[in-house]
Structure formats: C-alpha cells, structure tokens
Amino acid sequence: METPLFLRKKKLFFVFTSAAKPVWTRYGSETDLSTFIGSLAAILYKFQNYYTGIQDSLRYLRTADMYVVFLCTEALFYVCISKGKDSLESLYNQLRMLHTKVISTLTDNITTMLISRPSYDARNLMGGTHSALDYLIRTTAVSPSMLDAFMPVPMLAQHRSQIQLSFKSHLDDDLLYGFIMTSTSIIYRYCRKGENIHHIDTSLLFNMLASHSSLRSTMSWTPICLPNFSDKGFVYAYITFLQDSQVGLALLSDNSAAFKNLKACGDAIETEIRGLLPIIEESVKSIPYSVSICGIKEFKHFIYMTKAVDQYTMSGFTPSTRDFLPEMPIDIYKRTLRRYFAAYKLSNIPEFFKGNYTKIDTYKNEQIVALRTNEYVLFASLSSMLPAAAVVQLTTQLLRWLKSQEQDFFIMR
Amino acid sequence: MQKAPTQVKVVLLGDSGVGKSSLVLRFVADNFKNDADATIGASYMGKILQFNDKMIKFNIWDTAGQERYHSLAKMYYRDANAAIMVYDITKRDSFEGLKRWHKELQEFGPKDIVVTIAGNKEDLVETEAVPQEEAKEYSKSIGALYRKTSAKTNYGVEQVFRDIATKMCPDLEAQAPAARPSGTISLQPKPTPAGGKKKCC
Ligand SMILES: Nc1nc2c(ncn2[C@@H]2O[C@H](COP(=O)(O)OP(=O)(O)O)[C@@H](O)[C@H]2O)c(=O)[nH]1
Ligand SMILES: [Mg+2]
User: Fold this and answer.
1) Lower CB count within 10 Å: N or C terminus of chain A?
2) Ligand nearest to the backbone CA of B64
C-alpha cells in the first residue's frame, strides 16, 4: 500500500476531541485524516483500559526512528509524530504550547463545551489560525523552552528606558499590558503595576503578531486569551504598526470597551517614540548576533538567562558575522540545544541542584558547560579540545561579561 | 476654514473570503493584495471623503466573522451608522449567508442603520453565480442599497461609501470625482442644492 502523502512529512501534529473529531492537523485535510485520527484515538483508549484507576495516560511510543508523543488534556488530545531528532521534552513542550494556543484562541470554555459535547466539530472555531499554529511549531522547535523565558532584542538601556518613559507618561487605567515588537523580536514590554505577565502569555501575543500579516495593514482590536492571566475569558489587544515600519505597538486591556482609550494612549506613545524608530529598527537587525561579541573566541554558542527577569539572551545559530569561528548551522544548533536540554534535565534532580549546579559534558565535537544558580542559568558550547580548567576559567570570564551587559540585553524593570 | 468632519461609523459584514478587508483596503489605501491574509479580530481604518462643502470621516470596522469573535459584536455594532453586507458574486453560498448576517444586524445593530449590499469580485463577472435581479430584489426587500464592486479593479468601491453618505445626509450630492488624482481626493466644489433643509447626520 502506498504511504499517504502526509505521512512522509518529518513532523506531524494532530489535535482531536475525545470523540476522535479532528480539530486541527498540520498537514493534510482533517477530513482525509479522520480514519488515521480514529486509529490514534483507539490506541489511546486501548491503553487507558489497562490503566484504570491510575491517573495517567499513554505518553509516548517509539520506534528506531520515530517518536509518537501524546498529550491528553481534559477534552482535547494532542499527538506529534516526529521522525526528527527532537528530544521528548522538546516534543512535549511543543504539544503543550499547541494546547496553550488553542486555549488562547478559544478560552478554556472549549474544554467545558467539549466535555459535554465531545463530537462537536470545533474545526470552524479554529478557523484562520492555521498559519499561527504552524508558526508556533516552527518557533518552539528551536527555542530553549526549559528556561521558561523569552528573548528580547538587545538595545542600549538608555534607549529602552526612553520607550519605557513614553509608556509611563501615557498610562491609561484600561491598559493592562503593552508591547513594542516586530514579527521577529520583542523590544519592550509593559505590565500594569501590581500585575504580572507570564512569558508564555508574552509568547502567545508574539505568535499572534508575528503570524498574521493582516494585522500589518490596519489597526486591530482583537480578543486573545492569555491563559496565565485568565483562561476563562479574553483580554483585548489594540494592535497597530508604526507608520511605514515593521514595528508594532500592542496595548492590551481586560476591558472589552477600551478601544478608544487605548487608541488614544497608543497614538500618544507612537508620536513620542517615532524619533526612536531608526534605533529600534537597528537593534532588531542586530539579532541574531554573533557569538563573537563576547570577545572570547573559544565559545561557539551561549544562552544566558537571569531569574530577576524572565528573559534570556543567546548568540545566533547562524550569525551573520563570523569573526572568529565558523557559524553554527541550524542542525548543529539543534544538536547543541538537545545537549543543553539534557544538562538542564539533570540539574532538575533535587540531589544535583542545591542552589548551585555546574557541569561540563564532553562530546566528540564540543563541550557543553551548564551553570545554574538561583540567580541565573548559563549554557555554552566550547571546543572539545580544551582542558577542564580552561573551560572553567573561560566560563567565569563569559559570565562576568554577560552580567556587565544585562542592562542592554534585558528589559529591566 | 473647514468644519470638523462628520463622523460616520461603518461596519462590514459577510462570510469569510468575500473580500470585506480587500474593499476596505482599496477604499482607504487604494491597495489590493491577491493573497490577503485572513482578518483576525476586528480591524479599524479611517478615511475622510470630501463632499462639496462637507467632510465625512468614515470610521470603518471590519471583522473576521468567526464565531469565536462574538464577544466583539456589542462594541462592533454599537453606534454604527451604516453596514456594508458583502457577498462574493461567484459564490452562491455567500449570498445566502447574507440572510444570517442581516438577522445578526437586526439583533445587535441600531434600528436606523443604513444598509448597503455589495456584490464583490465584479471582475469575475463571467462566473457570476447570483443573478443580479435576485440580488437587487433581496436588497429592496430589506431596504438596502445595492452595488457591484471589485476591490481588485477598484470598480464601484468609493461609490459604496458615497451612497451611504448620500443616504444619511440627503443634502449631499454624492458624486464620484471625475478623475482620481492618485492618493488624494479633491472634489470640484458644487453649489449646494437649495431646499434640503434636513439636518445632516
Ligand atoms: N478577483 C477578486 N478577488 C478579490 C476581490 N476582493 C477580494 N478578493 C480576494 O478574495 C480573497 C479574500 O479577500 P478578503 O478581503 O481577505 O476577504 P474577507 O475575509 O471578506 O475579508 C483574497 O484572496 C482577495 O485577494 C475582488 O474584487 N476580485
Ligand atoms: Mg477579512
């Protein structure tokens, strides 16, 4: 029998209800796939029968070259079939993010609704989100998700605080969160006093802005559910792009009638930061930045995350400039990322992590250094030829440099 | 000195893919995209048209029309002066869909709202799936204006908005500019017709 076309893809995703009704698939039409999805659902049930009484479900199946990963939520099932080399953690993270995106689109009311009507056809409800879901899969595949953080664009602190100032001087009672971002990067993030904003909610907003080109030609007022703020309802985003630029301004409110107020607030901010546009655009162009900016030629790559803010920064995996070292192609980066994941996983084991964790993993073609304290996480890749003492010394040097740059790398409070 | 423009809120209704956003983009920015990305949430654009001695600012709202955006309906319809119900002349379904949109409009919209039906994609008239007579008849039956448009070729687009303005303010002479200087709209001032005492808008 000939393999259906969609099965030849490297990474498949399926979303369906407990009645095996398709909700979304990455490739192929849901209708063509209904038999296949039916079989996936049958496998899940079959296993569930073996485990009655245990609050668990099938997590994954694997073959020599393939993972089939399952994420079961209350009313929706997510399956990924991957023939790539992605780690289990990374695949789970992608499924969790898919679920988050579904909730972000429909709120958690979809769960209640599907529990009472599992055969409801939810495909239409998700209409118009295909490109956003696909984009989410592509971005999460290469993100260091274990860090629970997002990466802003590096920018001189003095410039970023000018943006901050313009937000602070035009605050509106209705304003909950505010963002300056492009389809590739986050430049500034504002959060109402007394509130918090979760990095996943940040990613969801970023995903929306980055994946819907229609937002670019008009001013929009769009409901979005930010599950970490509340999964029960929508908040509303006023989104506009600064004139003749790729720089977007998003202002969010928990008041659905706040469009006028936020637009006024947005107009004022826009006028004020227009002068900064060249600087913003310049800094957006600066990522991905080359690992060489740290000035230590032994490093091939680094990721640095500080817990004071839920943000990380990392050198590019395809740096445009390569002063010292060959660039790191995407495949190599993905391999390095898998090794970071592995190192981080160990540090999660309580016996290993007692507030301080240092580990050097030596592979054939690189050494991975992982440092984790209560303040920061650092991963870096160096040549496998270096002796351990040198690795330790260089890492200390890198850390010192990163700390000195924090103000520019991150959006500080 | 000109007086401040009269504000007119216009909402677009119609099935997804009929060309609502394209019509707005054509009207506001004189632009057209063959592969327009679907609208998300509701979008807002403004444009001022000059009529004789009067300026009208159209505040145009367009939605994705998806069920999940129902929470927007209240603010979408509130204080709307006019609604443009759009169908795709090559898709019978989209014409049938107007009935549902009209029902929603009656439910949420203000009572005295001006309604226009736009049969869009006029450039594909060879494959027209809805007889024009039928469309006109339906429009009449719900008290709506009717016009064929093409966001692609810019056929009848501005006229839809001029129709609305004239219907709302009968003392306006809604005449399309003879020639369109690119980008700007300048109308020859015309003598205001005497009589029409009805307060505009
Ligand atoms: N041929 C033709 N295509 C059009 C016209 N207006 C819109 N389209 C196309 O129809 C598709 C849907 O248009 P869009 O404006 O997004 O529809 P909406 O969902 O109602 O907002 C897009 O691919 C447009 O390029 C038109 O007048 N003629
Ligand atoms: Mg649209």
Assistant:
1) N
2) 2
- Tell me the C-alpha distance between A104 and A79, whole Å: 19
Helix axes B132-141, B92-108, angle to 10 degrees: 10
CA angle A295, A300, A305 (to 5 degrees): 80
Q: For chain B, what are the domain ranges? A: 6-174
**Residue B14: how many CA atoms within 13 Å on its side-chain side?**
29
Do residues B68 and A106 touch, judged by C-beta distance below 8 A?
A: yes
- Express each pLDDT in A337-357 by its tens digit: 999 999 999 998 888 778 889
Q: Cα–Cα distances in Å, from A325 out to A71, A298, A316, A332, A364?
A: 40, 8, 12, 14, 18
Residues B18-73: pLDDT tens digits?
A: 999 999 999 999 999 998 888 888 999 999 998 888 899 999 999 887 777 877 88
Rounded to the nearest angstrom, the gap between the alpha carbon of residue A102 and the centroid of all alpha carbons in its chain is 15
> Which amino acid is residue A11, in one-letter code?
K
> Atom 22 in ligand 1: which residue has the minimum CA distance?
B36
Fold classification of B6-174 is Rossmann fold (3.40.50)
Pocket test for ligand 1, best of B22, B61, B86 (most atoms within 8 A of CB): B22
A326, A301 Cβ separation under 8 angstroms: no
CB count within 10 Å of CB B111 equals 5
Residue with structure tokens 């940040």?
Answer: A202
| pTM, two decimal places | 0.88
Using an 8 Å Cβ cutoff, are A278 and A247 in contact?
A: no
Nearest bound ligand to the CA of residue B19: 1
What would you report as the CA-atom Rg of chain B, rounded to the nearest whole angstrom? 16
Beta bridge partners of A313: A304
> What is the rounded CA–CA span in Å between residue B117 and residue B120?
9
**A chain contacts of residue B24, beta-carbon cutoff 8 Å:** 218
Three-state DSSP class for residue A60: strand
Ligand 1 lining (C-beta closer than 6 Å): B 14, 16-22, 33-36, 38-39, 120-121, 123-124, 150-152
